[in-house]
Amino acid sequence: MGSPLRIAVLGGGRMGQSHARQILANPDTELVAIIDPATDQPARQFGVAHFPDHPSLLAQARPDAVIVATPNDLHVPTALDCLAAGVPALVEKPVGVNPQEVDELAAAVQTTGVPVLVGHHRRHHPVIGAAKQYIASGELGQLVAINALWLTRKPADYFDTWRSAAGAGVLLINLVHDIDVLRYMCGEITSVVALTSSAARGLVVEDTASLTLQFAGGALGSIIGSDAAVAPWGWDKNSGDDPYFAQEPDQPCFMIAGTRGSIQVPQLATWSYQGQADWTAPLTRDQVPLPAGGALDRQLAHFVRVARGEVPPLVSVRDAGRTIAVVDACHRAARTGQRVDVTETADRLTAPPLQAAR
Ligand SMILES: NC(=O)c1ccc[n+]([C@@H]2O[C@H](COP(=O)([O-])OP(=O)(O)OC[C@H]3O[C@@H](n4cnc5c(N)ncnc54)[C@H](O)[C@@H]3O)[C@@H](O)[C@H]2O)c1
């Protein structure tokens, strides 16, 4: 085993500190600095160097890798500077706030060859892996109907910061996770219809969204999400993934149904008929074995290998860009009242840059 990967965390807020704790707990990583223009308190708390901005970090400390946990609208510009300096990055979700800037970042990854992992950490969670595998096994038959819930009530002072301005909102902060993980488990989303509302909080960004999704395999889906609703349903409260949140472990956040059966996540409970499907007959409840373990530690272990060039990222910029294409389509659908096709924007992000004419 070589020396630990020397990582600097950009952004010393809630998520940056969560990453810092993960780095300290992993013997393959070393926390070298925390960058925050507003405060040196987190750096002092973790006993590491403080820099007020990432250009001074990159010039003076030259870490092996960085984790970008700044406000959403700074992810792409910050990551571009790190790539230009040859420093691999784990970029928090959302990878960018619109498909255009994600396109720019994807092109920079391609040009520089510097690896980037996007922080859709739920994909590293063993329960999501088990659900994805079960769906892929065909036990559910053909996917028909997919439902996701993410409902919580955040405190008012949560919105005293960047979280009340453009680039935030429940879609880009929270439902981006649900959209990403549904894509991961159930396949690509091809078109959307959406309603959003700011009525509960009165901010410029939406606090509530109701999304209707069409999947490439033909299934229809819905996501209902709100940061203003008191309710027990949502990955953070149901999965035990993050001890920051009080838990409601019996409640489901994803309900995925096919022609032969259904599965409830994160409990991994399944329902099917013993014989031929008959809506008057009792369903049999069964259980996919529940794997243990969390997501953030696995994500960091994976990032060490990505930064060293040993494996490709589980969530690349182009892949996370397809999730942003869905978010962008939801915003456009809500604005126009029209059904919006996702494929064109998403395919542009996935396609390699066009060759220059000879
Ligand atoms: N993966 C997850 O589950 C998850 C959870 C929470 C937040 N996030 C993401 O992490 C990011 C940070 O969210 P948060 O909740 O920690 O926000 P936060 O407001 O608590 O922290 C952000 C910090 O970044 C600092 N900052 C501002 N400009 C900066 C710059 N140019 N360079 C370095 N630091 C800068 C701010 O001073 C602040 O301390 C967001 O993109 C958010 O979407 C991800």
UniProtKB/TrEMBL annotation:
Coiled coil segments of this chain: none
A molecular function (GO) term: nucleotide binding
Alphabetized SUPFAM superfamilies for the sequence: Glyceraldehyde-3-phosphate dehydrogenase-like, C-terminal domain (SSF55347), NAD(P)-binding Rossmann-fold domains (SSF51735)
Database matches in Pfam families: GFO_IDH_MocA, GFO_IDH_MocA_C
Stored InterPro entries: Gfo/Idh/MocA-like_OxRdtase_C, Gfo/Idh/MocA-like_OxRdtase_N, Gfo/Idh/MocA_Oxidoreductases, NAD(P)-bd_dom_sf
Residue span(s) of domain Gfo/Idh/MocA-like oxidoreductase N-terminal: 5-120
Every Gfo/Idh/MocA-like oxidoreductase C-terminal domain range: 132-342
Family the entry assigns: Belongs to the Gfo/Idh/MocA family.
Protein name according to UniProt: Oxidoreductase domain protein
Lineage: Bacteria, Bacillati, Actinomycetota, Actinomycetes, Nakamurellales
